[in-house]
Structure prediction request, 166 residues.
Amino acid sequence: MSETLVRTLDQTRTERVIREANSLTNGYSAPPIPVREIAENAGVDVIFSSFGGASERVAGFCDFEARRLYVNSNDIITRQKFTMAHELGHWILHREFFESHPAEYRVLPRFHKPVSNHFEREADIFAANLLAPAALLRPVRELGAAALSSIFGVSRTMMELRLKEI
Ligand SMILES: [Zn+2]
Prediction:
């Protein structure tokens, strides 16, 4: 495949990811976005767990068969919301693939390594657009990252990135 074609395909997929996230938030007129409610409306239960011996390493994961998202109960709330949004991204975008290729699925680590494959990248893009939708962010962007991160209930780092993207 030509480089241009690969870029075009990537861009088409990214646009689809953003559309999927926007379709779940366009009923909400003000932040913060209730990500747990959205997940449960999408057919998955959200379970908080301390993960025992894996607590230090794992932020969360999706059990596709049981229709459950597991979230590390020891994490701070902004991190828990990101975990829910990221795993909901896998549930919405990649469920069919991971159900037929379970060995490809990776749990979400607490400490992010550089994003390694397009599934993880798409779940991150989905999470950013779900938690901080451009339509709600654009009109108030001049408030700045510090205020907006607490209004939207996301980390300061994510908000700084979002303000550059939109
Ligand atoms: Zn992931």
Q: What stands out?
A: The chain has one domain: 11-165. The longest helix spans residues 77-100. The helical segments are 3-25, 35-41, 77-100, 118-131, 134-137, 145-152, 156-165.
